[in-house]
Amino acid sequence: MPSILRGQRYSFMVNHIMKAILWDMDGTIVNTEHLWGDATYALAEEMGKPLIPEVRALTIGGTQEGTISLLSNYAGIPLTDASMQHWKGRIRSIMGELLAGDIEFRPQIPEILHEAHTEGLPMALVTNTTRDLTDIALASMYRKISEETFTFTLCGDEVDTGKPAPDIYLEAARRMRCKPDECLVVEDSSTGMTAAFTAGCRVIGIPVEEETVVPEEVTALDMLRPGAADLTGMGVKDLRNIYLQLG
């Protein structure tokens, strides 16, 4: 092969290497969306108006502030700085207790995390969940996976604007010292998928809730792996191939 062609091929390969995986937490790594659902329904009851599934769907993957604002508007009650702090306290109280239990991982996730960590592939946990609740969830997760699994964890209250804004994924890529396009993002919510795509990352959508709409700019897992509802039977090699297919 002529040297110029070898050089072009090498350049192509270098520019198409997955350098990091950025994982969402709730609904992607761990099966906790139903816990957030329980907390959201409970909060709506406390606000005086029972929640309907269509409104609950709008809160999936969102920030605490966004969820509280949506619920207060839905219930028709005023929202002040003081009441925002009150409702945030209620979320922390309800979710803190739920997350402290035995958290269930999504299918195949512990195996993939272990394989990637063993290979030395950088990974980060990138979640809209606040740091205090994330640390509670991590304490539960670390009973089953190594505390060294993630290069770092990044939470919604540690950036200027949470998902669906791209800030959190831009910051994650910066900390990885990668271009956003060199990162594969795994997300379950429309909110998270939008944030990752807007940041310029390659995104694979794996919805858990039936109501979740995959943005048209994002590829759902079952489009690349027909019939696949999760990562069962897959490994790091499969994620590398998915990354290339998304290019």
Walk me through what this model shows.
The protein is of the alpha/beta class. The protein has two domains: 20-31 and 104-246, 3-Layer(aba) Sandwich (Rossmann fold), CATH 3.40.50.1000; 35-100. It has eleven helices and six strands. The chain has helices at 3-14, 33-47, 53-59, 64-75, 81-99, 109-119, 131-141, 167-176, 190-199, 221-224, 236-245, and strands at 20-23, 123-127, 152-155, 183-187, 202-205, 219-220. α7 (131-141) links the parallel β2 (123-127) and β3 (152-155). The radius of gyration is 19 Å and the shape is globular.
Query: What's the number of helices?
Result: 11
- Unreliable stretches covering 5 or more consecutive residues: 1-14
At the first level of CATH, the class of the largest domain is Alpha Beta
Percentage beta strand: 5-15%
Helix content: 40-55%
The name of the CATH topology of the largest domain is: Rossmann fold
Estimate nothing, just give the exact number of structural domains.
2
Euclidean distance between termini CA atoms: 25 Å
* Shape label: globular
Q: How many extended strands? A: 6
The CATH superfamily label of the largest domain reads HAD superfamily/HAD-like
Mean pLDDT: 92
Radius of gyration: 19 Å
Keywords: Hydrolase
Pfam family, one: HAD_2
Protein name: Phosphorylated carbohydrates phosphatase
Enzyme class: hydrolase
